[in-house]
Design brief:
Blueprint: H1 3-13, H2 17-20, H3 30-38, E1 48-52, H4 57-70, E2 75-78, E3 90-92, E4 95-96, H5 99-108, H6 110-116, H7 120-135, E5 139-143, E6 160-163, H8 171-174, H9 178-185, E7 195-197, H10 203-215, E8 220-222, H11 223-226, E9 227-235, E10 238-245, E11 250-258, H12 265-281, H13 288-295, H14 298-302, E12 309-313, E13 316-319, H15 325-336, E14 343-347, H16 355-359, E15 367-370, H17 381-390, E16 395-397, H18 401-411, E17 417-421, H19 424-428
Parallel strand pairs: 1-5, 1-6, 2-5, 6-7, 7-8, 13-17, 14-15, 14-17, 15-16
Antiparallel strand pairs: 2-3, 3-4, 9-10, 10-11, 12-13
Length: 433
């Protein structure tokens, strides 16, 4: 098989959660362990950093990878899902996995695929671990797919575990309450391995984390208790922040620039800086200049897309991959704070989310362009319009995000603002991304 035939085979042969949802969900570590055992357990051949959470784990993973890369380390980065190209999931120093490795790996694993019937995610996790070993990375940052405890990535014993945020998402798999979901995320905490939790959230969530860490003798740090992160402004598209050390009460960064300019990054940054602090105590060599240059250039260093990404200026256009109530709450606050008087929304969702809860976050005075992602889990745009009407949002229906976005641009004056999102897969379908 050539590269395209290989990718087609993987998507056709293996159950893909992003495409079919619950039918592809395969909890447990046995299959991944078997796949990796057949490969010589590549995940044990280099240090790892494990990142879980409901929102923010992708951004956090990319920030940590960028910082380590700027510090001179050869860094593997595994994330999911991809936006445009399967190869985005597996990168070394910002470069996508090469096509030939994917071809050769898939060919070599066909007997295991037939024997074990793994999910798409299980195969890609094993592929990432093998690729990083072959590339001789110094460290790999591994983002959890869903949950943590039973996620395929959870066969690693990392140098540090990072948990970003707990909110309601994938409740059919992870639990109906925040403490239940926290318990699944806390499943990445390992015996005596330091854990950083980005936010000290409500008491019930914190107790789950503290209890799990205590039971495993894992030192725990809450990023929000370690640092105060305050937005101080914007400059050339970058968000400027002040960082205050809560122990010394001193400002340790003034106008630190972040090219990931979404306001939700304020929560992620505390966890990132706390993780870096822990890594340095372990003997890693991460300097202030490396942190500063990396955080200003995460997109260029790692290839991250779709996080509060500006697509146009007149009209002002932002896209964002927030896809649950917690993530959209922050995205909507930031978008609604823009001074632009007329605000337009190009939105679409997958059907297995809290659609009504998310729609209630959008302003009733907005102008709406409803679409659907090119994904079999997509909520039909006409059904979305009906749901939106029930909460007081009115708009037109379009076949896809690009038609909807073009209509919004055509309707806009130069001082208008357009938000594109609702689903990772809506953002992935944007042609100009």
């Amino acid at each position: 098989m050539n590269y395209q035939e290989t990718i087609d085979y993987l998507f056709a042969r293996l159950p893909v959660f992003q495409h079919i949802g619950a039918r592809a969900f395969k909890p447990g570590l046995h299959t991944t362990r078997e796949l990796c055992k057949s490969l010589g357990d590549p995940q044990d051949k280099y240090p790892t950093i494990h990142v879980a959470g409901t929102n923010g784990k992708g951004s956090t993973s990319h920030m940590l990878a960028a910082i380590l890369q700027q510090s001179g380390y050869k860094v593997g980065l595994y994330t999911s899902p991809h936006l445009k190209d399967f190869r985005e999931r597996i990168r070394v120093n910002g470069n996508d996995i090469n096509e030939q490795f994917i071809i050769d790996f898939t060919a070599s694993q066909q007997s295991n695929i037939d024997r074990l019937n793994p999910s798409f995610f299980e195969v890609t996790v094993a592929m990432a671990f093998a690729y990083f070993a072959e590339a001789h990375v110094d460290v790999a940052v591994i983002e959890v797919g869903m949950g943590g405890r039973l996620d395929s990535t959870n066969i690693i014993t990392p140098a540090i575990s990072v948990i970003t945020n707990i909110s309601l998402d994938h409740t059919q798999f992870l639990g109906e309450t925040l403490p239940e979901i926290a318990g699944e995320k806390a499943g990445i905490i390992k015996d005596s391995v330091p854990v950083v939790v980005s936010e000290l959230q409500e008491t019930a969530i914190a107790e789950v984390m503290l209890e799990k860490a205590k039971s495993l003798n894992a030192p725990i740090t809450f990023g929000s208790e370690r640092f105060d992160i305050i937005k101080t402004g914007m400059s050339v598209g970058k968000m400027l922040v002040q960082v205050i050390d809560k122990l010394s009460k001193e400002s340790i960064w003034e106008n630190l620039a972040l090219d990931l300019a979404g306001s939700y990054q304020l929560k992620n940054l505390g966890g990132v800086l706390a993780a870096v602090e822990v890594l340095n105590t372990q003997g890693w060599n991460i300097s202030r200049p490396s942190i500063q240059s990396a955080l200003a250039s995460v997109v260029a260093l790692t290839g991250l897309k779709g996080r509060w990404q500006q697509l146009g200026l007149k009209p002002l256009i932002y896209c964002d991959t927030a896809h649950n109530v917690a993530g959209l709450t922050i995205a909507m606050e930031q978008f609604n704070d823009l001074p632009n008087q007329v605000k337009r929304f190009v939105v679409g969702f997958v059907g297995d989310k809290d659609i009504t809860g998310m729609l209630q976050l959008f302003p009733k005075e907005g102008i709406y362009y409803f679409c659907q992602p090119g994904n079999v889990r997509a909520l039909n745009a006409s059904d979305l319009r009906d749901k939106a009407l029930s909460v007081g949002l009115a708009g037109q229906v379009f076949g896809n995000v690009n038609e909807a976005l073009q209509a919004a641009i055509s309707d806009s004056g130069p001082e208008d603002a357009i938000y594109v999102g609702g689903s990772t897969f809506v953002v992935a379908d944007i042609d100009q991304l």
